[in-house]
Design goal:
about 300 residues, alpha+beta, 6-stranded antiparallel beta sheet
Length: about 300
């Protein structure tokens, strides 16, 4: 059976989506079909018409990165569509620039909808960029964590021989898999981000600093493991309600590389009752739309323009 021609399907669909007026003055005549003609796309991308036809029909299946990039520009693809076209050509998407710390409004809305559960948003390099009131009630206010550069990685790999001297968060949050597995998973995820953002000078300098100054990080970084962070099970040693066993899930917001981290408890358990107790301590967010008036425990602000408050 012939493999599905995903590249050709995407190429034709996006070609027919482009407004003819976007193709330049030569495409303004009366038309019977929507979108660009193949010859118009070929001209815009600097390719031969025959090659565009063969790509759409699946008779040419291995375009170069330069060809895919030219087609993506001609079709005015957004970054996620461009990356899809590269993957359809069995090529790695082009490396992006700096790690984004901007949180789209729809991600803030998602966190608001998850207000009953401890939820925080991290950039791809594990810089915390926002959190809700339940996160502060359950894990503590992140402004008290003492993380250099607001980074979970820096908090996990503080100077010293191990992590026993001080908790990562406001109080201990322990992985059931153990410290070693938790650290290895985080470093493996950071490696994926570093490969995707090779031109981010701040990230490169941060990694190099940890490699030089933390033997645990250096050892884990050198093993080459690369994978995105998944779920975990944690025990939060809470000063008010005692130990809480929680499931941690890491979600990636569509169209971004932000990590939405949320904690939940098993239904009808003592742990759920403890979360309910903490939920009752959270003050509601003020009705004003001015986020600067928000109560300190209703969301996160790390003191610079890149942080967000909910």
């Amino acid at each position: 059976m012939e493999p599905t021609n995903h590249f050709g399907i995407a190429l034709r669909g996006w070609r027919e989506r482009v407004s003819p007026q976007d193709g330049g003055p030569e495409t303004g005549a009366v038309r019977r079909i929507p979108g660009l003609r193949r010859e118009e796309l070929a001209r815009l991308a600097g390719l031969s018409v025959d090659y565009v036809v063969r790509l759409e029909q699946g008779r040419a299946r291995h375009p170069s990165g330069q060809v895919v990039a030219a087609l993506a520009r001609a079709l005015r693809l957004d970054p996620s569509e461009r990356d899809h076209l590269f993957r359809c050509a069995r090529l790695a998407p082009p490396a992006t620039g700096n790690v984004s710390r901007q949180v789209p409004a729809r991600v803030q809305q998602l966190v608001n909808r998850l207000g009953d559960f401890p939820t925080a948003v991290f950039a791809a390099d594990w810089t915390i960029v926002g959190w809700n009131g339940m996160w502060s009630a359950t894990i503590g206010d992140p402004r008290t964590y003492g993380w250099d550069e607001r980074s979970l990685v820096a908090g996990m790999f503080r100077p010293g021989a191990g992590r026993a001297r001080q908790p990562i968060a406001a109080w201990p949050v322990l992985s059931w898999a153990g410290d070693e597995a938790e650290e290895e998973n985080l470093v493996a995820d950071l490696r994926v981000t570093a490969a995707a953002h090779p031109h981010d000078g701040r990230l490169a300098a941060f990694v190099e600093h940890l490699r030089r100054n933390n033997s645990r990080f250096a050892r884990l970084w050198s093993n080459g493991t690369a994978r995105t962070q998944g779920g975990d099970r944690k025990t939060v040693e809470h000063p008010l309600v005692g130990d809480i066993a929680l499931d941690l899930d890491v979600l990636t917001a569509a169209g971004t590389d932000l990590r939405v981290v949320t904690y939940t408890a098993e239904a009808d358990s003592a742990d759920e009752q403890k979360l309910n107790t903490l939920r009752a301590t959270c003050r509601p967010r003020p009705a004003s739309s001015d986020t600067s008036a928000a109560e300190p425990d209703s969301g996160g602000d790390l003191g610079d323009a890149e942080a967000v408050r909910w």
